[in-house]
């Protein structure tokens, strides 16, 4: 079946930001293919189809993308949303645990992007929308590995965007702040915890839980994703909620003052 509507592929669409994005894009007229590790028991809303995908597998990604193109005849927008969080001191996260995190948050983005790009180039149009984070533009104690993965997505996307513009394509960033999802509950904890960090780690986990609970509605992030997918003159970055003010502060506030405020928020000694 050749789909006349634009087609959006959204990874990590079974819940949270991804699910909200899938619904918002469908309401905007897209045929949406949402992916997750196990979508068998998910109820698909109108305009959304769910398919299984493991973004850490080259084979799974290639098979999924080829199947979507064969069935619908096109992909217009790729939303790389699949990801996991991680909380813990940098020293408490083993290299192996960090590798698994990067395999989803960074290499998963690269796998799906590389699988979709040949099709988008052949069409001469399309958008790749990568979900970053406020922690991709600022440090966050006890989230060093996660922050590193989002900093990587920022650099990758901005560089990619320069490479593909001549083909009629754009790579764009959506940067949520704390968002009211299951992010906290689903974040991995350190595999080599150390007593010396236990107290501050506990304080941070309480801070993160409170911030997520009071965070933005995922629908607000979905609005930014739709804008990135559809704006006639898209911006490279779409900050959501407090991310916009944080971005401005990082540019204009002296480093020592920003540093002091960050430590105060995280209840770290001056």
UniProtKB/TrEMBL annotation:
Pfam families per UniProt: adh_short
InterPro entries per record: KR_dom, NAD(P)-bd_dom_sf, SDR_fam, SDR_oxidoreductase
Residue ranges annotated for the Ketoreductase domain, each copy included: 6-191
Protein origin, superkingdom: Bacteria
A GO MF term: oxidoreductase activity
Keywords (A to Z) from UniProt: Oxidoreductase
Keyword presence, Glycosyltransferase: no
SUPFAM superfamilies: NAD(P)-binding Rossmann-fold domains
Mitochondrion is among the record's keywords: no
Family: Belongs to the short-chain dehydrogenases/reductases (SDR) family.
PANTHER family, per the entry: SHORT CHAIN DEHYDROGENASE, SHORT-CHAIN DEHYDROGENASE_REDUCTASE FAMILY PROTEIN
Protein name: Short-subunit dehydrogenase
Provenance organism: Nocardia fluminea
